């Protein structure tokens, strides 16, 4: 996978592909054969700060932690981005989504893993 600008975090992407966050730029999506599909910034016109963790939920939506903006954003497949969490985050560095819908955010500033019961309820 060439052409990435400071790849930092990698996670499973929609449909068996990959989602890669770049240090100062965007989140790139790759297909299951590792072919480039799109960038979330170009696709949604969303402006990122400093990207950190990235993951995908059971519905194939991409979830991104943004250190600079201190927020976690959901990128549904066919809708505009939705800020899931911003309150109480000081330095969101990692993000994961459990199959049952729980959202887990690693907040490096206070040393906690913050668990939200259902990210779908946050949206």
TrEMBL record:
SUPFAM superfamilies: Calcium-dependent phosphotriesterase (SSF63829). The gene is NHLRC4. The keyword Cell cycle does not apply. Keywords: Repeat. InterPro entries: 6-blade_b-propeller_TolB-like, NHL_repeat. It comes from the Eukaryota. NHL repeats lie at residues 89-119. This is NHL repeat containing 4. Gene3D superfamilies: TolB, C-terminal domain.
């Amino acid at each position: 996978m060439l052409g990435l600008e400071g790849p930092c975090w990698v996670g499973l992407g929609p449909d068996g592909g990959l989602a890669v966050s770049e240090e100062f730029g965007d989140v790139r999506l790759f297909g299951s054969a590792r072919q480039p599909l799109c960038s979330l910034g170009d696709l949604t016109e969303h402006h990122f700060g400093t990207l950190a963790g990235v993951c995908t939920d059971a519905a194939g939506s991409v979830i991104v932690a943004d250190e600079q903006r201190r927020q976690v954003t959901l990128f549904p497949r066919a809708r505009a981005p939705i800020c899931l969490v911003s309150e109480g985050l000081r330095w969101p560095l990692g993000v994961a989504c459990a199959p049952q819908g729980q959202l887990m955010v690693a907040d490096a500033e206070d040393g906690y893993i913050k668990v939200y019961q259902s990210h779908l309820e946050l949206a």
